[in-house]
Amino acid sequence: MNRSKIMRRKSLFTAVILSLACTLLLSCSNQLPDGSVGLKIMYDNSDEFFSKYGNVFLTKFPEYQIEVIPLDPHYKDGLTNEEFKTLVESEMPDIILVDNIQYAIEEGLLLDLDPYIDKDSGLNEISENVTGYLRKQGGGSLYAVSPTFTGQALYYNKDMFDHFNIAYPTNQMTWEDVFLLASKFSNAASNNSASYGYYYNGRNLFSLATDIALSSQMTYTDRNGNITLYSDRWKRIIELISSSVQQGFLATGGGSQGEPYADNLFFLGNAAMTTDYSNAMTYFSKANFEWDLVTIPVDPSTPDQSPSVYVNNMFGIYSKTNHSEAAFKFLEYIGSKEFANTLLRSGIKDQLIANEDVVKAMDSSHNIEAFYKLRPIEIVYPIIPLHLDTKIYALGDEAIRSIINGDRDIDTAMKQLQEEIQFLLDNENKKQAE
């Protein structure tokens, strides 16, 4: 073979190698051929992502391109933790919307963010309660970021309290404290049947009982699926509710098919207190009385924590991404005060912004700090099929009302309720095993 042919083959071989190298470099880099930066983000759906996060991020960083990997199609048939892990590993996103953060960390799906955070990082501006919860999930390390969270508070009608010369509620009261305070309006209730000390925005009394129980990290089953309602702690909760209804200062309601809050007794000025989510402020701002808020009632053993405060929209970086720096840029931005102000201007209503300073500027006339005083607390909820859950709550409500009406004493009612629900669960488990 002559020298010229050998040289041509060497040149061709070199060109192929260089071409392959360039291809590999492009695939390992998030630098796209047009010079833009590419990110793959796993989120519920594309429209919602760009509406909440993507559009504003791309306005500030136009050099980025974002591809959304939608999760909604997978939710329809139910997405288990194992299926989620398989999906992540097959799609290879750069950023993941995480639901079960504990599982994601344990399975090594998330990157530790601490090495990327410096003193000037926007992530330092996120509420300490939110990052504290996320760090607890990560054993002290930060694996995810959330720009929002959800919380409840105890709202109160200042005009009613002033009228009857009763002291306002305070932060970190217990449920017993709240009902004792509500009982001071019992005279008002007897003089005017439309006035109550506390209003529960729901008709099912067992639902109220489970809300109270959750503040003490109680559910109606243990970790093995055994019903635990026939216990002194549960009896105290049921007694608190039933006696409050009997004395006339606790009212229930809601469920109207018309305008939201149209039949809400607190909104109508006929109840001194109620518990509700942060989005209720939008409606209460239209009320014809002065109101304020304090923290949701807590358990005295954990006065700085509540299951009514929970972190949502948790974003983490996939541990096998080759684009960690670019991915962190996105996380840092959605955790910044700049993005918090953007959320505020957008009129976000269903969630709380994880930046207390920004929210204080939104409403300085009310105790918005109440939403930021309590840390989220992890609760292991019983896994109950939906069709059984509805039956259980109906049975629970029936049991409490039988106590109120004097048809059964509390001991009998709670013993029978436990037996009925255990029977339902045992039967369901037998069906599943067949």
UniProtKB/TrEMBL annotation:
Family to which the UniProt record says this protein belongs: Belongs to the bacterial solute-binding protein 1 family.
Subcellular location field: Cell envelope
Organism: Paenibacillus sambharensis
Sequence intervals crossing the membrane: none
Pfam families per UniProt: SBP_bac_8
Key words of the record: Signal, Transport
Signal peptide (UniProt feature, chain positions): 1-33
SUPFAM superfamilies given in the database record: Periplasmic binding protein-like II
Cited InterPro entries: Bact_solute-bd_prot1 (IPR050490), SBP (IPR006059)
Gene Ontology cellular component list: cell envelope
Protein name according to UniProt: Sugar ABC transporter substrate-binding protein
Taxonomy, superkingdom: Bacteria
